[in-house]
Amino acid sequence: MNKSIRKAAVIGSGIMGSGIAAHLANVGIPCLLLDMVPKQLTDEETAKGLTLENPAVRNRLAANAIAKLAKTKPAPLFDNSFADRITPGNLEDHLSQLAQVDWIIEVVVENLDVKKGLLQQIEGVWKPGTIVSSNTSGISINAMVATCGDEFKKHFMGTHFFNPPRYMKLLEIIPGQQTDPELVTFMKGFCEKLLGKGVVLAKDTPNFIGNRIGTYGLLVTLKEMTENGYTVEEVDAVTGPAMGRPKSATFRTLDLVGLDTFVHVADNVYHNVTDEHEQRIFTVPLAMKSMVEKGWLGEKSGQGFYLKK
Ligand code: NAD
């Protein structure tokens, strides 16, 4: 297949979107990083007399995400100067620029309706031939493009990066029912050779492979902890480096992932399986849902199972 990816667009500048944009910059691919227009001014913007019409305000979410890259640990960029390869913006004002890239990656909140709406918006400006993918943790690839045209569906697949994108070698590629098999082969080769990933092709089943197993393990750990009275520190002490795993143990991983995202990901299996045993396993403990309601989302909000230092 005669294809190449010279320029990309990442939509959603949160934990994963900014990390994916950084990794693309690492390998020399310039990309747009687009997020939403903020709904409110910050105190600082108000003091400067700015309004919601000001471009600096409108592009603030993605611009802040790029600025944060240099301070994030472990470092998402090979070299902080590579941040210049990422152009921040907001989707509303820059939608038409999606026609100028070779790969569009959707990395917004884990919610089917939001993702569906966004993909319809993208299809409206989509240049035939452009690859479009989703970084969903486990929402159905087919469901996301159910209302899109056949040509768009041929160019759409899941490209599920793991957190943090620069360091985690695993990448799941999930073809939809109508994805062009030649494009899947192209993307597998591209992600392996250029992005340095170990690609596993996965079927479009709830949470694919990594998160079906991973979420299961985390929920079983939470259940055992509650029933046996283990502490967060005890569980992390035995499920982290002591067990040969990298730095992140159970609760440190949940704080890194984001508790809100974890709840969405576990709920996705709960709502998409009929087996009662599986539903029981994939039931998120109420205590965790109430942490999310309080805004304890993990590292991104400064408080999760741990306080961010
Ligand atoms: P996040 O909450 O950190 O960021 C989501 C971003 O999307 C926010 O900046 C938000 O403003 C933006 N957004 C929401 N709706 C938008 C829209 N309509 N248009 C433009 N921007 C919009 O979330 P995250 O952790 O980066 O997760 C993003 C996706 O990646 C989800 O599908 C998630 O399941 C998946 N994922 C997350 C992890 C993880 O460890 N956090 C790992 C793998 C995959």
Automatic annotation (TrEMBL):
Residues 208-306 form the 3-hydroxyacyl-CoA dehydrogenase C-terminal domain. Residues 7-205 form the 3-hydroxyacyl-CoA dehydrogenase NAD binding domain. It comes from the Bacteria. Belongs to the 3-hydroxyacyl-CoA dehydrogenase family. This is 3-hydroxyacyl-CoA dehydrogenase. The chain holds residues 1 to 309 of 800 of the full protein.
